[in-house]
């Protein structure tokens, strides 16, 4: 089977074998060899579900089968699938099916449920036969990004607002940066297992630009500039405001698979999903690291069909 599908299948098999046990996300991911970031990206792109949502829906599906085909008490079913009480199970059940477990059983309902995800090489071939983008392979030396960072799930358009905020600062910090291009660096936050269970993996997104000089002396001068600006009459101008918020991240030297993405903004998430579920698996290239980034050069024009941004995914040599 394909390297990507094979590893996601291993994770699914582990989940299926442990639906009635405590599922540790670290153990699930360790079956695959992917980083947490790329596992989350690939799993959602291929399955259509976040890992937590998939587990919840699979457990609920199996619970409905017991409601329909067994005489087990509802409390016992609830406990079997990880709920501490019948009340907690009932609340979760009603959120999914809009009826209580008791009503579901008594009225012999049979709703569409989520079966085990099936993956195959034939499925990948069928998807990519009529729709495939070949990536460009490039090597990029290490570099520093400076920018402002958002942490969350972008549920209310926070990332576009982040770019608008960065745009306000660009002219005032122009001597420090390369203004001909911008980067959108995405990573996942480090969570405990308990936090993972409550949240479908919020991420970190840095809207940034490349520093023109990236030695230790240059980095110290940025910090000193911030301190000096704050000491001058207490005035907070755009440059000072940026320096107070700024985050500097070093991107290590790496080889990348680079995919062009048409700049029609509403289509970008769908294209990234195809990259991780279809185009990248089709290449057979093995990913590494725990990030990817969008690259915008000075020819980028949002929402124009002949303009492109580029998704850089780090790969093994």
Automatic annotation (TrEMBL):
HTH araC/xylS-type domain mapped to chain residues: 9-107
Gene3D superfamilies named in the record: Homeodomain-like, Regulatory factor, effector binding domain
Keywords in alphabetical order: DNA-binding, Transcription, Transcription regulation
Domain of life according to the entry: Bacteria
GO MF terms, alphabetically ordered: DNA-binding transcription factor activity; sequence-specific DNA binding
InterPro entries given in the database record: AraC_E-bd, GyrI-like, Homeodomain-like_sf, HTH_AraC, HTH_AraC-typ_CS, MarA-like, Reg_factor_effector_dom_sf, Tscrpt_reg_AraC-type_HTH
SUPFAM superfamilies for this protein: Homeodomain-like, Probable bacterial effector-binding domain
SMART domains: AraC_E_bind, HTH_ARAC
PROSITE patterns according to UniProt: HTH_ARAC_FAMILY_1 (PS00041), HTH_ARAC_FAMILY_2 (PS01124)
Name listed for the protein in its UniProt record: AraC family transcriptional regulator
């Amino acid at each position: 089977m394909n390297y990507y599908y094979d590893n996601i299948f291993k994770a699914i098999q582990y989940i299926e074998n442990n639906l009635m046990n405590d599922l540790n996300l670290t153990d699930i991911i360790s079956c695959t060899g992917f980083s947490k970031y790329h596992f989350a990206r690939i799993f959602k792109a291929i399955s259509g579900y976040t890992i937590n949502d998939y587990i919840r829906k699979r457990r609920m599906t199996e619970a409905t089968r017991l409601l329909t085909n067994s005489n087990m008490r509802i409390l016992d079913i609830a406990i079997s699938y990880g709920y501490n009480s019948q009340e907690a199970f009932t609340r979760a059940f009603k959120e999914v099916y809009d009826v209580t477990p008791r009503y579901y059983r008594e009225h012999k309902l049979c709703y569409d449920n989520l079966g085990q995800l099936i993956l195959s090489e034939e499925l990948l071939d069928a998807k990519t036969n009529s729709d495939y983008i070949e990536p460009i392979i490039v090597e990029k030396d290490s570099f520093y990004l400076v920018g402002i960072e958002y942490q969350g799930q972008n549920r209310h358009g926070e990332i576009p607002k982040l770019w608008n905020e960065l745009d306000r600062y660009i002219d005032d910090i122009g001597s420090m940066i390369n203004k001909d291009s911008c980067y959108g660096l995405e990573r996942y936050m480090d969570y405990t297992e308990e936090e993972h269970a409550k949240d479908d993996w919020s991420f970190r997104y840095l809207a940034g630009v490349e520093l023109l000089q990236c030695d230790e002396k240059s980095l110290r001068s940025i910090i000193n500039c911030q301190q000096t600006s704050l000491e001058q009459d207490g005035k907070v101008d755009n440059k000072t405001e940026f320096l107070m918020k700024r985050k500097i991240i070093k991107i290590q030297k790496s080889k990348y698979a680079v995919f062009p993405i048409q700049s029609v903004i509403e289509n970008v998430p769908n294209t990234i999903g195809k990259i991780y579920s279809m185009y990248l698996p089709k290449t057979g290239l093995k990913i590494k690291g725990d990030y990817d980034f969008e690259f915008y050069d000075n020819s980028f024009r949002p929402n124009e069909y002949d303009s492109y941004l580029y998704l850089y995914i780090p790969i093994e040599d």
